[in-house]
Write a structure and sequence with these properties.
With 97 residues, this protein is of the alpha+beta class. The chain has four helices and two strands. It has helices at residues 4-9, 47-50, 55-62, 71-88; strands at 12-17, 28-33. It has a two-stranded antiparallel sheet with strand order 1-2. The two termini are 51 Å apart.
């Protein structure tokens, strides 16, 4: 029931065939769940952030922290921490906003 594209969109499908009642047709209940593929948001770095006077200080203080894991995981942690530090300073100097 359905084609490949339909199965890709609605991956989890259940069908319940109900008992005959008044009609000679058997009711069918179709339960389907959309397959949701979420992707992480890319890290965006704007030139205005690079030009901010406190940017170099935040990077210098944040980047040397060490993390356990693969190099890609470590890079992700460093970028995430850098973003949090830059957002944390938004109240005083507005680096990201």
């Amino acid at each position: 029931m359905g084609n490949y594209q339909w199965l890709q969109e609605y991956g989890n499908i259940e069908i319940d065939y109900l008992a005959l009642d008044v009609s000679d047709h058997s009711p069918v209940l179709l339960h389907c769940t959309l397959v949701v593929t979420s992707r992480p948001k890319p890290y965006k770095l704007f030139k205005t952030v690079l030009d901010h006077p406190k940017y170099a200080e935040i990077v210098t203080n944040t980047w040397p922290q060490r993390y356990n894991g693969t190099w890609m995981y470590q890079l992700n942690c460093k970028l995430k921490n850098l973003k949090e530090q830059a957002e944390g300073s938004q109240h005083s100097s507005s680096i990201l906003y």
